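Work package 3, deliverable 3.1, input record:
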Amino acid sequence: MACIHRITAEGAGPMNKCQRCPKQATLHITEVLGEDRFEEVHLCEDCAKKYLYEPQKKAAAAKSAEVLGEGDEPDAVGEKQCEACGIKFVEFRNHGRLGCPHDYDAFKDDLLPLLESVHGDTKHTGKSPRRLPRAKGAQLELAQLRRQLQQLVTEEKYEDAARIRDRIKDLEDSA
Amino acid sequence: MNLDSLLPNLGEWLRGTGPESDVVVSTRIRLARNLVNYPFTNRATHHQKAEIAGRAKEALVKADLPYKLDYLDISGLSPLDRQFLVERQLISRELAAVLDGPRGVALDGKESVSVMVNEEDHLRLQVLRSGFSLDEAWQDIDRVDDALEARMTYAFHQQFGYLTACPTNVGTGMRASVMLHLPALGLTKQIDKVFRALQKINLAVRGLHGEGSRAFGDLYQISNQVTLGKSEPKILNEIREVLQTILQYERQARAALVKERKQAEQDRVARAIGTLGSATMITSEETMELLSAVRLGIHLNLIDDLPATTVNQLFIHTQAAHLQKLMGQPLDGEERNAARAKYLRSKLRELGSHQR
């Protein structure tokens, strides 16, 4: 998993040279190698593009770093998928963008260390929507219904599934 | 809204007034918001983006605010108009030229409020204020946010706050930034020191056009990085505190310049005006560098016949899209350099004749 920010302007000082070429580093990449272990990379735009298309090398690096770790499932995390939007964790890792709001729950365990490293915290404080209680209830119900729907489809209980689907639609329309 | 009608105006952020305006050009706050029950923009289908844009447009034009918001469909704008909005800081380069599909921006008449639709997040609310004005900017954007939230349901998480496409924005979804003109710190080679201190406390420094852009004309933007775990007022306070220190450093450096090498500075400013008023080809970068010297000269009282707002006007009008609109025709790079020089010559001559 990688979290990417653009950082400095040119005036921001000499300490941000690209680690692979003489150009100025404009991207700051935080790689999450495993539980609570991170690697920070500073690269220019071009090198960063190349870097991000190096999945094998990155997986290998992660694996070698994890050599004392849990055996040979290097990318079980990457294959995790959000049931709401279908994005795989590896896609987020490669592009730095999540697919839908539900990903924060679907990938929660893997996002927590990243949030901790970027923000130094994992709990929001501050403004919340005024209409929160109602909206939150509906969101929770929707998430539950979606999971239920998937379960029913895999069990081939299509009539029940259709009922749930209609309920989801109603909730979505009223939102 | 006819965009050409904005051309003679300076827009809120270049008004050149407001608190601490000798150093702080403008204050900006943006909020990232997403609608519940849709994928984020990068994963939304064309159809979903159209739906999001439709809902957002309705909420924006009906929003209960003391002013009206006009909604512009970006795909309906020419590349020149889009660039024009980028130069006026009303939309991002991404919304203008990188992203595709249904997307738009809503603007108020003063160019203080803008809401981008289907940028990286479904909604990117922005408020611009002239000078150092974090509290007012926060009050403004908080109100816009409430007005929109009354008509749309945001994706909000009990633990993580406002959910965003990139986890670096999650929580408050707020990025507050101040644009600073720091020529004296640059001249006295203290600027790197200031920035290293800033990065240690998690504030980011960027050039004029935000992420990844260069710092032209001694203009820098300072903004918060952290969006999760700190409340909006707390984040704003941290920026406010740091800013007091930077203001103090820049003003000290300016005072030292006047004290120790007034003559040399006077000469530098006079030469800058000379070049601006007589060049026949000039790039946008050089223009910004020279205008930076002139702006400093005004605040050091080394010149008294040029108002600061004129510098701002020259600054915005000499950017590519503005220049082409003023000249009424598309111009390539070389032609722009000639047109820019011509514009500057005639403007400065006009000013000179007014004064005498």
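The longest helix of chain A spans residues 132-154.
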